[in-house]
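pasting for ref
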Amino acid sequence: GFGDPTVLFIAALFVLAEALDASGVTAWAGQRLLAGAGENRVRVLVFMLGLVALVTALITVNASVAALMP
């Protein structure tokens, strides 16, 4: 099981997500998102889509999903 590349890839995604959370990057991004969007649900959704697009442009799609899930 641990020799399978898929298992190692998913484990690395969890490590990356925890590192982003521990460093405060996800909390900072969430605060900036709420500061810009306010209380409007539609604006929060649009801003979240923009944040995901920005993160996905910098890292892989799977890693961005793992980082933004918490």
